[in-house]
Automatic annotation (TrEMBL):
Its cofactor is Zn(2+). The gene is rbpA. This is RNA polymerase-binding protein RbpA. It holds the Pfam family RbpA. Keywords: Metal-binding, Transcription, Transcription regulation, Zinc. Residues 1-23 are annotated as: Disordered. Binds to RNA polymerase (RNAP), stimulating transcription from principal, but not alternative sigma factor promoters. Forms a complex with the RNAP catalytic core and with free principal sigma factors. InterPro entries: RbpA_sf, RNApol-bd_RbpA. It comes from Streptacidiphilus cavernicola. Bind 1 Zn(2+) per subunit.
Length: 111
């Protein structure tokens, strides 16, 4: 990132001078993200800059979120949806109650 665009005109790996410039950045705020494995990822952002809601955990690669109690579900590892889960997508709760009643009635032998 440093030196991109040739504004400074210094060589890549300029050494101490580059280090100093990095130390003089605008005030930063540290934002914590938590991944599903409980890793805390602390990322420094420029104060007032927008920061993302999620960050890839550098330790395990899971998506880490800002809200420790409401972690994002990483794409591709969505919880396995049960047969009942698919059913609930297709049926309303009311229909489900009727189906359940029918099933129970069959079990009781009253149909
Ligand atoms: Zn992690």
């Amino acid at each position: 990132m440093a030196g991109r665009g040739g504004i400074r005109g210094s060589q890549v790996g300029a050494g101490p001078m580059g280090e100093n410039e990095r130390g003089e950045l605008a005030p930063r705020t540290v934002v914590s993200f938590w991944c599903g494995n409980g890793h805390e990822v602390r990322i420094g952002f420029a104060l007032g800059a927008d920061h993302p809601d999620v960050w890839d955990c550098p330790k395990c690669g899971l998506v880490a979120g800002r809200d420790r109690d409401n972690l994002p579900v990483p794409a591709g590892t969505a919880p396995y949806m049960t047969h009942l889960g698919y059913l609930r997508q297709r049926r309303s709760q009311e229909e489900g109650d009727i189906l359940l009643e029918e099933a129970l009635a069959k079990l009781r032998g009253s149909i």
